[in-house]
Amino acid sequence: MNKIAVIGGGAAGIMAATRIMELQGENEVFLIERNNVLGKKVLISGGGRCNLTTGLSDLKEVLQKYPRGARFLRTCLHSFPPTALIEWMEEHGVPLKTEADQRVFPESDNGKDVVDAFQKVLKQSGANIFFETTLKSITKQDKKFVLNFEERETLEVDKVILCAGGQAYRHTGSSGDGYSFAESLGHSITDLGPSLNAFLLAEKWPQNLSGLSFKQVTLTFRGQEKFSFKGGTMFTHKGVTGPGIFALSALAAYENFDQNSPAKLGIDFFPEQNHEQLQQSFYEKLEKNPKKVFSKILKSFIPKSFAEELCAQLEIPTSKLCSEFKKKDLNKIIDALKNLPLTIIGRVAGGEFVTAGGVNLTEVNPKTMESKLCPGLYFGGEILNYDGFTGGFNLQAAWSTGRLAGESAILS
Known about the structure:
single chain, alpha+beta, six-stranded antiparallel barrel, five-stranded parallel sheet, 13 helices, elongated
């Protein structure tokens, strides 16, 4: 009989433990969780609704949603793609729905249903779950792993699956101590950075637009490097947020910026038109409506609140008739709509959803999730150096890496 310890009861951990119990055999599983519930981060994802995967079925398209680690994830995502997860959840009594943006949620909009499906399998199959248990250290002695805890006696096991998460959302238990365990067993950790967070802006006037959103704009980050992404964004009382901003922050996860050394953000509100085409659209409107006040024309292109705030910042009067409106003022507006310049001075504190960086992927076998340096040690989830954009991609990678680690631990 193999004794297998799964460290961490998040998405990857509960999937790894569940897969072992599904395949059964002569194995005893110990799922170690520092919280008093499983899947604490799963429970709060998607605002509690749990965006557990994506509705995209083309794996090439899915893999493009990972700014880091896509190549490493190919095997596990082919083995257990989003479609397989959807099938598994529905077979286990959790009906799902796919929304227009391809995000997949339980029909109940309750992440607890997702976690309960795993907990039911684990309970019925006799897995050992240690709640409120803090792991102090892992050492390898001969072919065994020795686990030392704060609250209970030492545990000796044959294999370990390390799914301790990253260091985002520390209140869920993702404190980053998994990196220390990996290092103590011979692994190296890449540079760590916050990913999927909102940006703080130096400018105060966007605060007047708090809550105003745009579905599809092109966002350009300029710091030590330049990154661009097309997606949705929203102004907040602190700066900017939204799917497009989260993706841009993931691309810029290793950029350093603050009030003394800011980064630049440019927003193109009309990405489907170049400067000349947008200019022509304005000219046509002006020529057709010479007796109308310019402000009414501008509001046909952008929301009223944005139109008023933008003109105030550009010091452009909007009460003039279209026939009287100056060409230089129109060009100022078009320049701003094609590249609104804003100044990024920080990330929203604690807002990162995932951690960029982690266990060096060159030290892990992508076909098994087993360590190349420490036989019998496996990895799953965010502790590894991969991360994805929002839309269910990070949870999907956790399910897929956890499942492959669980299978490999009992079949290898």
